[in-house]
Structures are given as structure tokens and as C-alpha cells.
Amino acid sequence: MKILAGSKKGNVNLILIRNQKIPKNLTKEQKAFLEFQNYKGEGNLFVPYGNIYLVSIDEESSFCNSIRDAFFLAINFLKKLNIKTLSLNVESIKEAKEACEGILLGNYTFEDFKEKKSETTLEEIYLNSTKIPQQDLETIILEAHIIADSVNYVRNLINTPPMQATPEFIAKDAQKLAKELNLECKVLDSKDLEKEKMGAFLAVAKASVNSPFLVHLSYKPKKSKNKNIPKFVFVGKGLTYDSGGLSLKPGDYMTTMKADKSGACAVLGILQSVAKLGLEAEVHGILGLAENMIGGNAYKPDDILISRSGKSIEVRNTDAEGRLVLADCLSYASELEPNYLLDLATLTGACVVALGEYTTGVMGYNSKLQHSFLMSANNAGELSAILPFNPYLKKLYKSEVADLCNIPSSRYGSAISAGMFLGEFVPKSLQDKWLHLDIAGPAYVEKSWGVNPFGASGAGVRACVEFIKNNIKEK
Ligand code: BES
Ligand code: ZN
Ligand code: ZN
Predict the structure, then answer these.
(1) Pair type for strands 213-219 and 184-188
(2) What are the backbone angles phi and psi of residue 97, rounded to the nearest 5°?
(3) DSSP string for residues in 280-298
(4) Which residue, by CA, sits nearest to atom 22 of ligand 1?
């Protein structure tokens, strides 16, 4: 499905209903139909007379998603009709951008494993505006296609079942992406991880027949006019499966744990968008890929691991594995001396309890940076909220036998204490450049909401790309 800038008439014409104001220039039949339906401007409605489809948006809503969400519903209705084209007139850049995103994200399906795939005749959507110059409209559409393609690429990877999407599979996909987009790509296998002394990362992967990989992708703009470009490093938790390890998860909690690779996959999507948009920034992606399994060789509660940074970690629960993988990845990432260091992880169930399923938890030591992220995420249509650090929670992961313990001594506030645990592996000099994003809530969707159908949402991609764009301007 493609969105094009143009005023060609579609088989169905989409009309925006802003703040429940029904347009005056409807035909007699259309007016009668609205009356018959008792339509007062709330919700979307297909009007068969003259083939118009009303998309209701609330411009005064303080919620960031209303236009995108309305178009998600629109496209999911319209793609079932036997039509080829749609047309839509918008009045602002915001309307154009969000309509495109709602349509392109809403059109996603994951049907690789279904014999009967859903079919649609819908091919083209013509977007036009008397208020936006043609050139600008074309740019908005192109950018929306790039970002939505990345989100959908990430969704595909995450949705791929764990028997197929192993650490090696994701690493190979990263190499493929690097080749397509001219990115640099280093892949570290378990021998390399040993050389790097990544004792925490390696322990998590020990019981799996699928060996771990660390992927390091980097993007530099081709011919940059500006020599002083900012450096962003994104680190992603890539547990291609989290069974909990010996601290085995109960059955109900284990399903969906193929999505424990969402952070790493989002990092791939961020790099893809950054490269396609040709952003004026140096951007690195570090993926910590492993599988947390059980077996005779598994790491155990009571083990003491030596991390890459030299800090020892007492294991008290093998299900708190993400922070072990990320500890070593953050230590590796720090050596790149970034201006911005962000990690994305489906780290804790506690974050979902605290914020709900729709919201990313934003943590770190720099309040200005956190607020800057919140604003970017909001503009991009992702919900996020700050979970504040405090010194009392930091004390909870002290250990009697090692430098740190991998679980806190209290379950209260454990999304935050997990974030503070990660902070121990970010050197002091970088702590105010670091953000931890816990995407455990929004990464996987079991009941469609917003612009997300069932399955992986691609959480983090849109927010982080917007964050990079906003912080290039500021530097
Ligand atoms: N991958 C899980 C966190 C998670 C839970 C992600 C639900 C998405 C949905 C993580 O590795 C985990 O198991 N965390 C434990 C930590 C606990 C043992 C301290 C948790 O949240 O229960
Ligand atoms: Zn776990
Ligand atoms: Zn996990």
C-alpha cells in the first residue's frame, strides 16, 4: 500500500471530522444517512452515498495519538472493501504526518505462518492539501513510509517464533541490513565475548544450544557538512527467548517471551530509519543476543559472575537475565564515548505494573534528557513516563558476597532498582548522557490498541528516531 501526494479522486474519499463538526457540503442522501445512523460526529463512519468515509479526530485532545488511531481504524475497515484507491485532503502538517503513520502502521499483518492470507485490492492513497506546499507534502509522505517500514520490519522480526529467530538469525539479519544500507557491522561470537571478558552476558547464554552474539552496527553520514556531529549509541536487550532459566517462569508467563528481543530489534529499526533518512549524526547500535534456557550447563542462583567492567554479580534469580546481558553491553558501548547513550529493554514486569501496558518507562540520572525524550516520544506518538531514581532503591541490590546482586531485596519499585542496577555499568562520566527505556509494557500487544494490531508493536523506534532528530538540531 502506497501513499502518494496528489489530488486524484479515489474510489472512496476520506473526510476528516474535526471536533465533531460535520461538514455542511454533504448531499441530501448523505445527510439523511447520517441522521438515520444517528451520527453526531463521534467515531468513523462509511457513507455509501457518494462513497465517503468520515474519520473523526479530536484536535483538542491532549492525548497524542488521536489522528493516528483514527486512521488505524479507517484503514482496517477500508482495506476490506473491494476498492483500489482512496483520497484524503488534510489541512496541516500534523494531520498529514499522523494520517500517513496511522495508515501505514495500521496496514501491518503478520501472516507468514497462515495458509490463508488476508487479501486487499487497496493499492494507493492520494493525499492532498491546499495549505501545504507539494514539496513538503512529498517529504512528509516519504518520511512516514521510511519510519513505518522500519517499525513494521521490527514487528516482523519480533513476531518470528523463537525456533527460527535465534541469536544467530538476528545477527545475520543485522548483517543483511548493514549490507543494504552501507552500515559497518561487527559480529562478536562467544569466543569474542570471552576475549571481552563478558562473564555476565555469557552466563545467561550458557544453557542454550543457540550461542550468543553481540552485534555492533554503525552509521556515519556520507558527506557531512558539519564535522561536529553528535554521537548516539543505542543498546538493545535481545533475549530471543526468556524461559526464566533455572528460576523457570510459570507457563502463563513464558508465552510472549519471544518478544524479549524487542529492544535489540528496535535498535535495528532505528538504524534502518536513520540511514534511510540520512540523518546528520553518528549512530551506533549494540545488540546483546542470547537465549535464557535451562539445562545441565545452566547458570544458577548462587553463582557469582565477573562482568566486563570487573564488578562481580551474585545471581539470585536467573530470570533477571536482561540486566546481566545489558551490563556487559553497556560497558562495551561506553567505550564508544557517546554524547547520548540509550538502552531499550523489555526489562521488568514491574514496569508494566507501574505504568500499564501502553507506556515506556524512562529512567536515568539526567532529568533534562529524560524530559527531552518524553517530548520526542510524545511527538512521535509513543507514550512514555519517567520513573525516578532514588538512593534508597539503589541500596536494595547490595550483596553480602559480591559487588552487586542481580535482584533487589524488595520487590517494591523493582523497575527502578533494575534501572539503577544498569546504571552501575555506565561510567560516572557518561551517567548524565544515559537513558534507560523499559519497554516491557508496550513492546508486545495481546489486544490491539492505538496503531498496533496483535503482536509486536515496534515500540521505541519512532520515539528514538524523533529523539535523534530533535537532538541533532540542538547540538
Ligand atoms: N523479560 C522479563 C521481563 C518482562 C516481563 C518483559 C513481562 C515483558 C513482560 C525479565 O527478564 C524478567 O523476567 N524480569 C523479572 C525480574 C525479577 C526476577 C526480579 C520480572 O520482571 O519478574
Ligand atoms: Zn527474565
Ligand atoms: Zn527477560
Answers:
(1) antiparallel
(2) -60, -50
(3) SSEEEEEEEEEEE--STT-
(4) 349
Q: List, chain by chain if needed, residues with CB within 6 Å of any ligand 1 atom.
A: 242, 260, 317, 319-322, 346-350, 352, 407, 414, 440
pTM above 0.90, yes or no: yes
- Spacing, Cα 347 to ligand 1 middle (Å): 6
Report the alpha-carbon distance of residue 196 to residue 334 in Å, rounded: 14
- End-to-end alpha-carbon separation of the chain, Å? 37
**How far apart are the CA of 229 and the centre of ligand 2, in A?**
37
**What does the pLDDT profile of the chain (475 residues) look like in tens digits?**
999 999 999 999 999 999 999 999 999 999 999 999 999 999 999 999 999 999 999 877 666 668 999 999 999 999 999 999 999 999 999 999 999 999 999 999 999 999 999 999 999 999 999 999 999 999 999 999 999 999 999 999 999 999 999 999 999 999 999 999 999 999 999 999 999 999 999 999 999 999 999 999 999 998 777 778 999 999 999 999 999 999 999 999 999 999 999 999 999 999 999 999 999 999 999 999 999 999 999 999 999 999 999 999 999 999 999 999 999 999 999 999 999 999 999 999 999 999 999 999 999 999 999 999 999 999 999 999 999 999 999 999 999 999 999 999 999 999 999 999 999 999 999 999 999 999 999 999 999 999 999 999 999 999 999 999 999 975 5
**Near ion ligand 2, which residues have CB within 5 Å?**
242, 319, 321
* Ligand found nearest the CA of 237: 3
441 alpha carbon to ligand 1 midpoint, in Å? 11
Grid coordinates belonging to 129:
492539501
Residues with catalytic roles: 249, 323
Ligand (nearest to CA of 456): 1
How far is the centre of ligand 2, averaged over its atoms, from the C-alpha of 12 (Å)?
A: 48
Considering every ligand atom shown, identify the ligand nearest to the alpha carbon of residue 408 and give its number: 1
Lookup: cell for 130: 491546499
